[in-house]
Write a structure and sequence with these properties.
The protein contains eleven helices and twelve strands. It is of the alpha/beta class and 357 residues long. Strand 6 (142-145) and strand 7 (153-156) form a beta hairpin. Helix 1 (16-34) packs across helix 9, helix 1 (16-34) crosses helix 10 and helix 7 (222-231) packs parallel to helix 8. Bound molecules: 3-isopropylmalic acid (IPM) and manganese (II) ion.
Length: 357
């Protein structure tokens, strides 16, 4: 029997729909080529729906999403909606409600892509960040007193639970083992200042490490991590860190791998429904022009295939991305690709279709 997957599409705002369309092209072609079926269902979450109806993430939609095999998200963010509303009520709520406790961010410089780092190439820039995705400052603990007065007090606390920290660390150790490259896992923290939170992280890190004697462990403060990511990115294999630090260092990672046109990520619940997205956001100024780079979305679709267990198809899509970058594209930035958004998508899909097994 042909395998079949139900995939939720949340094209979302701005250029989200344009890049999701190209991801779907690659996915469909991969299904035809490698013998599986994809059934797509569209969900119109985002700024437009919110402005029309006031709805953000209705419970009925959440329940439908829970029944899918995976979610493919374009972008959430609208220039006419006050910052924080869509992010918190849609994106972060999905992470919490679906318990997407891992944010997985490969930082890989593909051949043919320019990095701002001098004298570094694909050999040196190839690591993965495992970011905790449901706790830390993002948990929303805190509050404000006497708002708007000169006596205002604002508190925003970082929540770190033993369960949350341990499951994230275990995922990172397993990921590092499966990745089977340098087998080195670096904990990124701030043990010299955040002496409660990162003391917990560090203790559990060393405890779990005992079960993984084949993995070399390392530690770097978050500020030093930023330094080494720029100066010696080749030192890293897998980095594991908390939610806030992970947010920051993965944008730095996106830049050294060639920018937002390339960077993809997964919001993962290893035992549930996971969500994959290009991390560049809705890029309102490029909306509707056919100039946005769809490769980040296609790379997110590729991660989704891998996650669903379609490893051959995933590796074909990755090869197709690398091929189009070397053979066809003149750049990765919006408007500088030498091709339109849909042309890049067609080229990738054609390479996938012609991939020898
Ligand atoms: C990301 C984004 C989100 C985050 C925003 C949009 C809430 O920056 O996925 O990294 O901070 O996690
Ligand atoms: Mn971010």
């Amino acid at each position: 029997m042909t395998k079949s997957y139900s995939i939720a599409l949340i094209p979302g705002d701005g250029t989200g729909p344009e890049v999701v369309a190209e991801g779907v092209k690659a996915l469909r072609r991969a299904g035809e080529r490698f013998g599986f079926e994809l059934r797509f269902q569209n969900f119109d979450l985002g700024g437009e729906r919110y402005m029309k109806t006031g709805e953000l993430l209705p419970d009925s939609v959440l329940n439908e999403l829970k029944e899918m095999n995976a979610i493919f998200l374009g972008a959430i963010g609208h220039p006419q909606v006050q910052p924080g509303i869509l992010e918190k009520q849609i994106l972060l709520r999905l992470r919490f409600e679906l318990d997407l406790y891992i944010n997985l961010r490969p930082v890989e410089l593909y051949p043919g892509v320019a990095t701002p780092l001098k004298d570094k190439g694909p050999e040196q820039i190839d690591f993965v960040v495992v970011r905790e995705n449901t706790e830390g400052i993002y948990a929303g603990a805190g509050g404000v007193l006497r708002k708007g007065t000169k006596d205002e007090v604002a508190v925003q606390e970082s929540i770190n639970t033993r369960l949350g920290v341990e499951r994230c660390l275990r995922y990172a150790f397993d990921y590092c083992r499966d990745r089977n490259k340098r087998k080195k896992l670096t904990l990124c923290g701030k043990t010299n200042v955040l002496t409660y939170a990162f003391d917990l992280w560090e203790r559990v890190f060393h405890l779990v490490a005992q079960e993984y004697p084949d993995i070399t462990t390392d530690y770097a403060h978050v500020d030093a991590t930023c330094m080494w990511m720029v100066k010696n990115p080749e030192w890293f294999d897998v980095i594991v860190t908390d939610n806030m630090f992970g947010d920051i260092i993965t944008d730095l990672g996106a830049m050294i791998q060639g920018g937002m046109g390339i960077a993809a990520g997964g919001n993962i619940n290893p035992a549930g429904v996971s969500m994959f997205e290009p991390i560049g956001g809705s890029a309102p100024k490029y909306t509707g022009q056919g100039v946005i780079n769809p490769l980040a979305a296609i790379a997110a679709a590729q991660m989704m295939l891998h996650h669903l267990g379609e490893k051959e198809a995933a590796s074909a899509v990755l090869t197709a991305i690398k091929t189009v970058l070397v053979k066809d594209m003149t750049g990765v930035e919006a408007g500088r690709m030498g091709h339109s958004t849909s042309e890049v998508g067609d080229l990738v899909a054609n390479y996938v279709g012609r991939m020898p097994s």
